[in-house]
Amino acid sequence: MRHPELGAVDRGRVLRFVFDGREFSGHPGDTLASALLANGVRRVGTSALLGRPRGIFSAGVEEPNAVVQIEEPFPEPMVLATVVELYDGLVARSLSGRGRLADQADPARYDAIYAHCDVLVVGAGRAGVAAALEAERSEARVIIADSGAIGADWPGLGFVGGPESVGGLGLAGGPGSVSVDALVGPETRVLARTSVVGYYDDNYLVAVERRTAHLGLGAPPEVARERVWRIRAKRVVLATGAHERPVAFAGNDLPGVMLAGAAREYLVRYGVVPGRRAVVFTTNDSAYAAALDLVAGGVSIAAIVDSRRAPGDVWANRARAAGIEVLAGYFVTEALGDGGVSSVLVSPRDSVFSSREISADLLLVSGGWNPVVHLFSQSGGTLRYDDSLGALVPGESPQAVEVVGSARGDIDHGGESLWFVPADDYSRHFVDLQRDVTVADVWRATSAGLTSVEHVKRYTTAGTAHDQGKTSGALTAALVAHAIGAEPGDVGNTTFRAPYLPVSFAALAGRDRGALHDPVRITALHQWHVDHGALFENVGQWKRPWYYPRDGEDMDTAVLRECRAARQNVAAMDASTLGKIDVIGPDAAEFLDRLYTNLISSLPVGSIRYGMMCRPDGMVFDDGTAIRLAEDHFLITTTTGNAAAVLDWMEEWLQTEWPDLAVTCTSITEQWATVALVGPGSRAVLRDLAPTLAVDQASFPFMTWRDTEVAGIPARVCRISFSGELAYEINVSSWYGLALWQTLMSRNITPYGTETMHVLRAEKGYPIIGQDTDGTTTPQDLAMTWIISKKKPDFLGKRSFTRQDTARPDRRHLVGLLPQNPTTLLPEGTALLADGQMVGHVTSSYTSPALNRTFALALVAGPHPTLTTLTGTKADVTSPVLYDPDHTRRDGNPEEPHNDTDTVDQVKDASAKRAAAARSTPHDTDTAARAGGLADGVPAGEVVAPAAAYGRFAVEAGSPGPERRSPLGGFSVEFDGLRMNEIPFLTQVNVRSAEALTPPNATVTAGETVTAWLGPDEWLVIGAAGARGVDVSAQRTAIRVTGARARELLAHGCALDLHPSAFPDGRCAQTLLARTQVVLIAESDGFLILVRASFAAYLAAWLVDAAAEF
Amino acid sequence: MHPDRMWRSAEPRKSYDVIVVGAGGHGLATAYYLAKNHGITDVAVLDRGWLAGGNMARNTTIIRSNYLWDESAGIYEHALKLWEGLEEDLGYPLLFSQRGVLNLAHSLQDVRDGVRRVEANRVNGVDAEWLAPEQVKEVCPIVDVSPGVRYPVLGATYQPRAGIAKHDNVAWALARAASDLGVDLIEHCQVTGVEVTDGRATAVTTTRGRITANKIALSAAGHTSVVAKTAGLDLPLQTHPLQALVSELLEPIHPTVVMSNAVHVYVSQAHKGELVMGAGIDAANSYRRRGAFHIIESQMAAALELFPVFARAHVLRTWAGIVDVSPDASPIIGLTPVENLYLNCGWGTGGFKATPGIGWCYAHTIAHDTPHPLTAPFTLTRFTTGALVDEHGAAAVAH
Fold it and tell me: Looking at beta carbons, which residues of chain A come within 8 Å of B122?
């Protein structure tokens, strides 16, 4: 029933909704609960275990009964009717304790944002708003958050229903009321419909804002439905209020039994008259205020049943003056009715058998008030049991937090603690309404010997439901105390855990879904692969071309074709994903000697060596190549998946164990695009494309590198092979990667992917770390004893090789396998048995076009000539090197006549150019290959000594020649208050210096050059030619974000406080933005983001997505 | 359904034959089997808090035995066989439900590792199947197996005999049975030190006094290293929080248990209807039973990748356990350099499923002062010899 005048709903508008199949109407400002009450709906649920009818019990987030299913606009399980704001077209239904998930994906958007403030106020009641006003006066940045729809149309009643409210209809503002409208600070942020749900260390709080659910069908699809606020506050004020608590008596779960403050709130806030004739059962003064308001609102109050023998005179007199009978020293012993309260049994507390039945359709209950201490407890705060309140109140917290208002226990209701009404039978005294837990259940637990509140909770399930015991927790503890003869304060409480209120999975997932679930890394050639039909393999976060099917080819056919091209002609692969690390410093060689199992320091400048790293336990960790650029300067490569791990590994050892070594490591993976040019025809291609390079075997032997130009692009070419064929790895600035690739492809060279790479290397018996090893494999197990230096005094893993088990002769070791049926392909992972015992497993298995049969690699213990699978397939054990065991093809096809026709003059000319290039060449490069047979591959070639390896390495802009491409292709986009555009082709040099080039966390600008602090000895010099350091110009690209909303945009993905007071113009940081590593520089009108090239497309997509609401 | 009495609440006596430190699932199972299998009933199980209030009350209740290595399969399969008769043995409902476990593969290497594990399981007599994506969909229709997702499901291992049980019931049933056989269960009795005399453990000091014992068996999960330290033992353990969460009750939607290592989440739907989910460990070392929030956020993002229909389910509660992780992600069980002091720790994120199995074998170890054959590979000395049981590698799903 709706009161003709009261309430703040907008009666001028009608909203239609459906509940349990019936059509109803309500008004803007209603909750689903208030609208149901206004329509006379009493039953809103069926209890889960006992099937009893349940009605609306509260008016807020503590509701245990009115947990409903939203069906339209989109199914959402288990939401509180007391919280759902009514909208037109809402379809909901009652539940029996369990909700229903949609059978399709949620189309809504979700969002997260970081926020920083001086003061976070939780709760916008009277105490909270007062605290925020106070904070505004002294501190700049205030956030106030409240679960309710605070704002212009909020009634502004402060603590409606709160115990400190005065009676007599505190309408129209009432005494002491405040509103968030009073908050006008320029840095004040008012977050309505925002529940703070978690309080973590270092004053990190998590809140969830419900942004569009209340708009129903009118919710704009581009607006995130919910937003997680990740708030870092210097100080927190908890004004979280108090929850009224019930008393357990028989039938206390019937519809029509309602918390007294809730009834008052329905009347005052929503103009809903929750019943015609009410009995009020209270232990304290606060329910008198409710009773008086309800009388004024037209509800007949049959009696106030006050458990206290001597209620406070002031309130009792007021009630009597209003014509209400006050029964002091009485209990309600039972609520009666069929499907809802129709009468109430009351009796004097000292004479429970002389009961009197009072007709009523509403029974209002107040057992006192519990301060909402959940967040305070989560903060690490201690709780204290307050005897006068019969409730836990905040004690001390290790964090900067203050509790104000009723949340602190500032509640003066003159009440007594009454937990349950004595009876003979407690099987209908409900404690946890949602779980159907009764007093009898609790006592069954205690009589079973369970005395811990945790055990009782778990045994009875009290407090484990949707409301997490908000109305039942204190009661359960008190009942346990009663049962074991303890004081309520002595049994403690179950832990208050996040979230304070239920939070949707989708809100927590935020925008990390679908294409943005995890950053996608791509190479400079990626779009070409896409355009040419490549299928991709996920390798870590990278997308690598797997194979390139042509014209309906299946995978096997495509891979066979690609393999043949590499073995018989010439083929090319994008190898850019391999990790590349620049290692420089006087101790670089010593450092690498300690990391790798083999000797690196003996490597001549100009040469390349395959190396392996082990963990201290002697197991293989990673492999790659080391190329020596200068005496003090190396470039090492890692496997694609381990690039970050290897750099971490190097830094960990350098920083924690070997700080005395003078060496620095810089990731340059994205600086270079790498193309493996493979096959007997590769030399001819290279000769053609690099006319100044002497490509003959003598001039450019295996395992050496040369700087040259390929297709007019400055390039470092490495003669290494991961296929056994003559091969070159051509490294160019990733700006020119696509140009190089297109030039190669224009020559009808076959592109191949990772699958073909795997076949080619497996034919040669080259293991893949992580596929043919599993963390329990030593280099010896891979038959690579040759890679373990006997000269070095120590290296990581060395000491473990002599351990009892590691030195065991019968360890699993790498072998080749030939299925006896040459067309049988053994599935990778297949168990291998000898004499019925499992002795190993297949690690790699392929069909080989070169061998014209299937083959496999396996890790096998013991010498067995033949192995059997579980299905009985037999395979013969052989050497893992099945193709060209004598490495005759490494220098070109031995069966074809040598056609090295370089003239001496050409070679000399090339040599001179090479020297010139070396002087103006960066000291970074990359390679892809390694080779099991490389022990004998130490080069004897000419030593190029680029002593001065610092410098720039780029084709000058504007010069004719190959086209350079930036990772984002000139990305530029504008939104309201926001502009983003790529600043491509910035010159960037990573500089190490013992002397500070800038203050910490700051940039220094000199002319066109910006020097940005990266660390105590590391800077990024942007825009300057000639800086001495590692050229990283193509490693990252830049995105400039400008406009009034630039900071807001970045706050969606960056945990730093970017407010001008904390991150002013000229500040810089290495940080994470949308889970990508960036260098962030504050500028006068926004930010410059330097992002690794492989992440750039993902980050740009993320930024555009985050700007969807702009 | 529940009998009146769960277990005797005992006061500590001055002396026992065996003291078990830690009244979690492992400690209780150990005491139970000491009494049942070996007739050793002069046993006290001490716990610093309420009984089974540590990881036993916090795990996600997954039971499986499909581990890669023979040594692991041995102990976990022994446990699973015991699980299959445990309700009857203990005479108490454990809500043990063999609804199967899927371990999803999201990369080609995951596929290789999965096939390898399935085959190894079969050799070891552990039920295991390799499922293609469409078969995954048949077992669990709500998993998104479409190829368009960021890390598509490329297949899964499936162990039909795996499943879940109600952790509290397991603890209480073991406690009741042990108590009935004469074992003293002593709550709120924190062991503050192990006394060692002439290389022999002789007594523990506790917050409720000193108690002597002929044998002292540690079984304190994340705090084992702390207790062992008082006996002069440095254990190669790192202690981390491991978080889990639960949703509201939902109509049945998820018929099995799904675990994914690459898209890191594991989830089942409990009997009442709530989704029970866990993630990877918090990277930071900590003894606090609370983790960092971003772990929960990424766990939910992972969950929605695999189960888009979960979007509007709600997180009701999050919590953390304290897990003790060894260098090879396998437990450390058996004798120690200190005579009469026994060790059971390092179970990391996987201890619950082993409960009856480890109780059985640990009791044997204590009773005979010699390792049970099934736990013999899990010695402390393996970190010296190098004979690791590395479940980090190919068997990487750890829970």
Answer: 831, 870
